[in-house]
Amino acid sequence: MEQGFNFSNELSGKIALVTGGTKGTGKSIAQRLLNAGATVIITARNAPEQANSHLHFIAADLSQSAGTQEVVSKVLEQFGRLDILVNNMGGSKTPGGGFAVLNDEDWESTFQTNLLAPVRLDRGFLPQMLARGNGVIIHIASIQARLPLFDATLPYAAAKAALVNYSKSLSNEVSPKGVRVLTVSPGWIQTDGATGMMKEIAARTGIAIEDAIQQVMESLGGIPYGRPAQPEEVAELVGFLVSPRANYLTGTTFVIDGGTIPTI
Q1: pLDDT tens across 132-189, in order?
Q2: Is residue 261 domain-resident?
Q3: Quick check: helix, strand or coil at residue 20?
Q4: Measured on CA atoms in the order 173, 177, 179, 184, is the torsion positive or negative?
Q5: What's 124's domain CATH number?
Q6: For residue 197, is it within any domain?
Q7: Chain-wide mean pLDDT for the chain?
Q8: What are phi and psi of 236, to 5 degrees?
Q9: Mean pLDDT throughout 229-239?
Q10: Average pLDDT of span 26-44
């Protein structure tokens, strides 16, 4: 059966939430959905440095249960529903050095941010999606779920692996009821934060920024494409996955890593 899609303004009438949407990849995803016609809500601890009147901002700490509940309540009170949830917030602040330097707080805080925050948001928004028989949930994971860097980000890699497993399980439950659940696993993304880290490494070690970038790529085992991803490239994938063009896609993990993962 043939089905036609309007690629222009294809998300018109949809309401979307992007967590961690004030900078980096989250900012690019929010802009991509906005460009497609969606009403876009973003959330983070702090307001964006440059305000965008077309985006609706909610300040919240999603690593805490109260912050998650606040976002769910405000979105549903103000907009009445949510059609698209992009669980983008995540990151690692644990010290390098392997398992011996990590304490309970390192593990707990990492899992709160990278696993439990998405779980809570899904739990908050899924009932109204299921009641309407329609919705899309995207979990932004990481290739570290399959390619962990034990010396630097052990808890982060473990949390993202759990997120991928949870996402697949959730899809099996809710896809028959009309809600699509997908995972996007990026490799290294050259956000402003990553660029700042490269500058710090270069200054600390006395090497050029280009050499610092090469060192990081080598620590990943190499990136066949030859460079990190740009945030806009990840956003374009997400924009497609939440669109009507991807209606038959659910329960799948999409890797966008320039070929970094060395296996099929």
Answers
A1: 999 999 999 999 999 988 877 899 999 999 999 999 999 999 999 999 999 999 999 9
A2: no
A3: coil
A4: positive
A5: 3.40.50.720
A6: yes
A7: 93
A8: -65, -40
A9: 97
A10: 97
* Residues 20 and 118 grouped into a single domain: yes
Q: Which residue has the tokens 């999409």?
A: 254
**What local confidence, expressed as pLDDT, does residue 30 receive?**
98
What is the set of active-site residues? 156
Q: Are 177 and 205 contained in the same domain?
A: no
Inside any domain, residue 2: no
Task: Give the total number of structural domains in the chain.
Answer: 2
Can you give the residue range of the structural domain that contains 214? 193-228
The stretch 94-108 carries a mean pLDDT of 91
In a domain, 150, yes or no: yes
Q: What is the pLDDT of residue 1?
A: 40
Confidence band of 5 (pLDDT split at 50, 70, 90)? low
- pLDDT at position 4: 53
Here the tokens at position 180 are: 């699509």
User: What is the chain's alpha carbon radius of gyration, rounded to the nearest angstrom?
Assistant: 18
Residue with tokens 């980000």: 153
Position 164: which residue type? V
- If asked whether residues 108 and 173 sit together in one domain, one would say yes
Same-domain check for residues 158 and 223: no
> Are both 112 and 199 inside the same structural domain?
no
Helices (H), the chain: 24-35, 65-79, 104-111, 117-132, 154-174, 192-205, 209-219, 231-241
Which of these, 87, 83, 26, 76, lies nearest to 55 by C-alpha position?
26
